[in-house]
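Order emerges. One example.
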Amino acid sequence: MRETTELPSLTISYRNLDPSPALETEVRRRFDKLMKLGRERLIACHVVISAPNRRRQQGKLYSVNLRLELPRGSLPVNRNPPLDHAHEDAHVAIHDAFDAALRRLAEFRRRLNGEIKTHAAKRPRLRAARDSHADEGES
């Protein structure tokens, strides 16, 4: 029996700006890098590139949101810092978003492998010990 591997789908959407071949090429290049370095099996990647307002000519900050679909769920990556003026260039915003996606995938993988400790609930025994000392002082 031969196993087939499907390539993940990539969807690119634009909000408040016209589709651009240069931006699409940048997204595809970053997506290919994510596929090589991510080491997680992606099912799909949805990318939304947004500009805040078409009328504004200067100081327009782009935001890029990604949603990575994995076999174990969806992983959202939002990179839209409100005052990061480097994001006046959409290419820089795309670069930052995919770098954040790599970090999120690495964190996701560490959680699955149990490398990141989850904090237990506050230790009730310590609180109970304090309460028992308080009861001793009242008698």
Remarks:
- Strands lie at 9-15, 44-50, 63-70, 73-79.
- The mean pLDDT is 77.
- The chain has three helices and four strands.
